[in-house]
Write a structure and sequence with these properties.
311 residues, alpha/beta, 8-stranded mixed sheet, 4-stranded mixed sheet, binds nicotinamide-adenine-dinucleotide
C-alpha cells in the first residue's frame, strides 16, 4: 500500500460518513464512499458531494459506489452506518479489506465494535467517537452546521499504534477539528453514551431541542436515575465513570448545545428507526444478563419503541 496517500473507504456515506469523506478529501487522502443508496451515490458521481458548512459551501469530487468491488483494497475502512446497519455494512464492505486494513468505527452507542470483531476477528480494529455533527439534506447533499472545534478520539483495540493510525490522525487534524489517539477511549465513549441516553431520548419524547427538554427540575431526577443505572453497568465493566462525572458532563453539554436537536428527534420526525437498541436498550440488556433490572432505561426504551412503531 502507498506510503504517501492513505486510501480510505467510508462504509455508509450518510450524514456522518459524508462529513468525514469531505474532510479527508480536503486533507489529501484518497477517499471512496460505499453506500447502497443508489440516488445518493448517483448524485455524488454526477455532481460531487455538496457540503454546506459554517463558512460556506463546497463541492467535493469523491468516488462513490454501491459496490465495494469498485473500490479495491484500502488502508482504512471507516464504518458510519446506524447501529442496525452495522452487520450488513461490514459484510458489504468486505471487498475493500486487505490483510493490513484497519477497520475504524466512530459510531455512537454500545455494541458496534463487537459486531465488527465478530465479522472480522483477524483484522485490526479501532473504536472511538466524534463530537462533530452532520445532517443529510438529500441525495449527495449534507450540512455540517457545527461551529466549534470538532474533536475525534480513537484507539486501536489491540493497543498497538501503527503508521496507519498516526497518518490518519495527521490527515484529519489538518482538516476540520482534531483527531487524537487516546488510551482512555472507553471512558470518553461512556461519557458520550450518558449524553445520548439522556438527551437523545428525552428530546425525542418531547419533540424539542436540548434547552426546552431540560428546563424542568423533574427531568433532572429522570437523568439521575438513567445515569445511576449506566454507572452500575460501567463499574461492572471496570469503566471508571462516576455519577458526578456523568452529571457534570451532562450539565456542560446542556449549556453548550442548548439549541441542538439530537439525531433521535430527527429520526422520529422522519419515521426512521432510532439507535435506542445500542443506547438505553443496551444498558437494559447488558444489566439483565447480569441479573440486574434497569427500570428507568427500560421505560425510556419502551417509550421510544412506541414512537418508532407509530412512525
Ligand atoms: P445516516 O442514516 O445519515 O447514514 C447511514 C448511511 O449508511 C446511509 O447513507 C445508508 O444508506 C448507509 N448504509 C446502510 N446500510 C449500508 C450497507 N450495508 N453498506 C453501506 N452503507 C450502508 O446516519 P448518520 O447520522 O451518518 O450516523 C452514522 C453513525 O454516526 C451512527 O452511529 C450515529 O450515531 C453516528 N453519529 C452521527 C452523528 C450525526 O451528527 N449525524 C454524530 C455523531 C455520531
Amino acid at each position: 500500500m502507498s506510503q504517501s496517500t492513505l486510501k480510505i473507504c467510508i462504509g455508509g456515506g450518510g450524514a456522518m460518513g459524508s462529513l468525514f469523506a469531505w474532510q479527508l478529501w480536503r486533507s489529501g487522502a484518497q477517499v471512496h464512499i460505499c453506500d447502497p443508496w443508489v440516488e445518493h451515490v448517483q448524485a455524488i458521481q454526477a455532481h460531487g458531494l455538496q457540503v454546506d458548512y459554517v463558512h460556506g459551501q463546497e463541492t467535493a469530487t469523491i468516488h462513490a459506489s454501491t459496490d465495494a468491488h469498485d473500490i479495491g483494497t484500502c488502508d482504512v475502512l471507516m464504518i458510519f452506518g446506524k447501529f442496525h446497519q452495522t452487520e450488513s455494512l461490514i459484510q458489504a464492505c468486505q471487498p475493500v479489506l486487505g490483510p493490513d486494513t484497519l477497520i475504524l468505527t466512530l459510531q455512537n452507542g454500545l455494541g458496534n465494535i463487537e459486531i465488527l470483531k465478530q465479522a472480522n476477528p483477524d483484522h485490526r480494529l479501532a473504536f472511538g467517537l466524534t463530537t462533530l455533527t452532520s445532517e443529510l439534506h438529500g441525495p449527495g447533499h449534507i450540512e455540517s452546521s457545527y461551529s466549534g472545534t470538532g474533536e475525534t478520539f480513537f484507539w486501536p483495540l489491540d493497543g498497538q499504534i501503527t503508521d496507519t493510525e498516526t497518518r490518519l490522525c495527521g490527515l484529519l487534524s489538518s482538516a476540520v477539528g482534531t483527531m487524537t489517539l487516546d488510551a482512555q477511549i472507553e471512558l470518553r465513549i461512556w461519557k458520550k453514551l450518558v449524553i445520548n441516553c439522556c438527551l437523545n431520548t428525552v428530546c425525542a419524547l418531547a419533540n424539542t431541542n436540548v434547552a426546552q427538554a431540560t428546563s424542568t427540575r423533574s427531568v433532572w431526577q429522570l437523568f439521575e436515575n438513567i445515569i445511576s443505572e449506566i454507572v452500575t453497568l460501567a463499574s461492572l465493566k471496570n469503566i471508571p465513570l462516576t455519577r458526578d462525572m456523568a452529571l457534570s458532563y451532562l450539565s456542560q453539554v446542556c449549556t453548550d448545545a442548548a439549541e441542538h436537536f439530537p439525531s433521535m428527534v430527527m429520526d422520529i420526525r422522519r419515521g426512521k428507526r432510532t439507535e435506542i437498541d445500542c443506547l438505553n436498550g443496551a444498558i437494559v440488556q447488558q444489566l439483565k444478563k447480569r441479573g440486574i433490572r434497569a427500570p428507568c432505561n427500560e421505560t425510556v426504551t419502551s417509550l421510544i419503541n412506541v414512537l418508532e412503531a407509530r412512525a
